[in-house]
Amino acid sequence: MLVTETAQTGTIGGGALEWESLMRARQILRGEAGREENRFVLGPQANQCCGGVVVIRYEPVFDLDAELRALDAQRQAWPVLSVFGAGHVGRALMQAAVLLPISLRWIDQRADEFGTVPHGVSVCVTDDWEHEIVRLRPGDGILVMTHSHRLDAMIVAMALERDDLAYVGLIGSRSKRKRFEAGFRDIGLPQTKIDRLVCPVGAQGLGDKRPQIIAAFVAAELAARLVCHPG
């Protein structure tokens, strides 16, 4: 967590622990204390009931550029999610997913469909979806929600062939999944690869079709699949 006199970025978990640590960091910035390391027992004495022990180390930062380079290096290691389709659900999803530690690549051949692009999202206007799948690293993911079921099927089939992506999601109903599964079997995809497909996406929110609700449930799914338990 980086702290200045008036702002902070990052977190050590929130609550009273973070508040006390924030105040102590600002005392250090004002020269009222030096670098130090404190041990907090998360029990009644600290007005906490979580249990456990946390060690907080405070260090003044004199080379902010070096810290920013380190943060950028961390971002480079984030999993990439390539989202195919810039429709209304795609636009809602970008607003939700941009808050996650995921590198977002948004792909559509229709340049006028993206609308307002959140800061940090990489937009790619292209119809070369094959190249976009090839460029993904093992452990990355894709989410398919284009304007064409035929295009959806081709993208998903190629992604499932890779067998090394942490997440292959397809927007649609259970009946759409059944039709796609039959088509995949017809072209020789083994069932073990087909079973890796996530469709419907954000399944717990299926009762509500509003783009923002779908996006919220899909974002939670992405966090579970790509961030908390990658691979």
What does this 3D model show about the protein?
With 231 residues, the chain is of the alpha/beta class. It has 2 domains: 2-73, no CATH class; 78-228, NAD(P)-binding Rossmann-like Domain (Rossmann fold), CATH 3.40.50. It has helices at 15-29, 64-76, 88-97, 129-134, 149-162, 174-186, 191-194, 211-228, and strands at 2-3, 8-9, 36-41, 53-58, 80-84, 103-108, 122-125, 141-144, 167-170, 197-198. A 6-stranded parallel β-sheet has the order 7-6-5-8-9-10, sandwiched between helices. The longest helix is centred in the last third of the chain and has 18 residues, at 211-228. It is elongated and about 70 Å long.
Task: Give a brief rundown of this model.
The chain has helices at about 15-30, 65-75, 90-95, 130-135, 150-160, 175-185, 190-195, 210-230; strands at about 1-5, 10, 35-40, 55-60, 80-85, 105-110, 120-125, 140-145, 165-170, 195-200. It is of the alpha/beta class and about 230 residues long. It has two domains: about 1-75, no CATH class; about 80-230, NAD(P)-binding Rossmann-like Domain (Rossmann fold, 3-Layer(aba) Sandwich).
